[in-house]
Amino acid sequence: MAIELYDTTLRDGTQGEHINLSVQDKLLITEKLDEFGMDFIEGGWPSSNPKDEEFFLKARKLTLDRSKLCSFGSTARLLQNIENDPNLQGLLHSETPVITIFGKTWIAHTSKGLGISEEENAELIYRSVSFLHSHGREVFFDAEHFFDGFKDNPLFALRMLKAAAEGGASRLVLCDTNGGSLPHEIDAIVRRVLAETGIPVGIHSHNDGDLAVANSLAAVIAGATHIHGTINGIGERCGNANLISIIANIMLKMDRNFTFVEHLSQLTSLSKFVYEILNMPPDGKAPFVGRSAFAHKGGIHVSAVMKDSSLYEHIDPKLVGNRQRVLVSELAGQSNIRYKAQELGIELPEKGELLKNLVNHIKELEHKGYQFDGAEASFELILHRELGNFNPYFEVRESKVTIESRKGSKNVDQAVLKVAVGNEIEHIAADGDGPVNALDKALRKALIRFYPQIKTIKLVDYKVRVLEEKRGTSAKVRVLIETGNGRDTWGTVGVSTNIIEASLQALCDSMNYHLFILKASIPSGEELLQD
Ligand SMILES: CC(=O)SCCNC(=O)CCNC(=O)[C@H](O)C(C)(C)COP(=O)(O)OP(=O)(O)OC[C@H]1O[C@@H](n2cnc3c(N)ncnc32)[C@H](O)[C@@H]1OP(=O)(O)O
Ligand SMILES: CC(=O)C(=O)O
């Protein structure tokens, strides 16, 4: 039997700290989730805020091919006022085919939170569900705090579920609202509920014990056929169950199917899409879809995956739209270097001194603070230099940067460089907006006569990282520069205790790389005279 996917990114997901989605964001995510193949998309709580009301109004114009839109809310506030309850009315006005309402199934919440008796709570649930159902809507019942409630008083918890079922609920969704349950508890309780009710059971887990995904899978193993969660696990406190991991585990490891999702190659892009809309950096360590999920650093690992990827990878990354990566660091062996070289289309000898020297050279540089993840152009130059394919196109013989700041007048930052190209020496000064800009301008001014090709490139990104924080202002810094030519970008690195020196190294690598890729030739004396 296919398992139903119920996405609550737009409702419970937005209850997470720092998460905020506009109406337009919610509409975009809804379309993406439909395209991916969710069965149900919970859009929000219509009567709780104007944004969600507007969302449901605008969502009526969306054409969803697969997903059914759901609105969410609580049971009525007062037993005496079911028909006119503003929350239930708001749910009906949202005009969604499915309505999900949550009710109390832990006795402490009924007595302390709502201040009503067991009898009254059962009636509140029954009458709220049947009211919505009588208006032709499919109603799902979220049994809030079900697992804690069941552990405390199983008869009470089961009675509330039965009230929802009698009212016409077509799914009983068991919520681990406080997120503290363990998989074996979920397993036993789901089995008991299935034995006592004849209605499909769902699971809604929170991640407070870091077990939301495991608990969702335990529920499925016990017989649940409907799973709630959010993309990337965003949500209240520590988040909701991460649907990305749940979907991948169920399809690839448990050999179970969903209604619409046929293959998982869109999983990584779905995760990135939601991060992008949330304006949040993607979690590199996220299982299945993170940038590091299949990144190998240890030399032993790389040596093995080059023979057979499955030796250190639990699945083929392509299945989820991700890719294998190999990192170069002080933990690298010859295999890492060979892998990276292959990736860059560079042929290295199988074994031998050259490879050993390269590994040692890289390890020394890493020890000094260099890092080549994000600075692959610098790494490529090292390989080509070692192989004898590359000689720097120029050499900065001297550099001086001055920063002049006077109260009441504009700062003047100036760089003076002595640059050698072949036998020629250029002595150049340039002003800039800040010392790095002055340096960049001076370098270009010095080189442009010899290499007009550098006109087309520009700095895209500039990052500084302090390497030995404890040393305060005398610490080493690593500068990572990204340069682009409008079509491609490339990263270079520099390290020094002097931020200007580190920036100059990264800038020089960047220009050298551009010239190297263009196969520019170092001008001869005659060519220079013709100029
Ligand atoms: C487990 C979950 O994630 S449930 C979803 C939680 N999400 C949210 O709360 C986000 C949206 N919520 C809101 O915008 C607001 O809380 C509203 C509009 C729903 C209510 O706002 P207010 O009327 O100001 O009430 P407030 O938020 O202070 O308290 C919630 C009220 O709901 C009542 N309530 C809680 N659960 C239920 C329930 N299942 N059925 C009926 N009433 C309930 C509480 O007893 C409390 O009532 P009281 O004020 O009479 O004590
Ligand atoms: C309903 C819900 O979001 C919860 O119980 O966690």
From TrEMBL:
Name used for this protein in its record: Citramalate synthase
Taxonomic superkingdom: Bacteria
Pathways involved: Amino-acid biosynthesis; L-isoleucine biosynthesis; 2-oxobutanoate from pyruvate: step 1/3
Keywords, in A-Z order: Amino-acid biosynthesis, Branched-chain amino acid biosynthesis, Isoleucine biosynthesis, Transferase
Keyword Amino-acid biosynthesis: yes
Organism field: Chlorobium limicola
Catalytic activity: pyruvate + acetyl-CoA + H2O = (3R)-citramalate + CoA + H(+)
GO molecular function, one term: (R)-citramalate synthase activity
CDD domains cross-referenced by the UniProt entry: DRE_TIM_LeuA3 (cd07941)
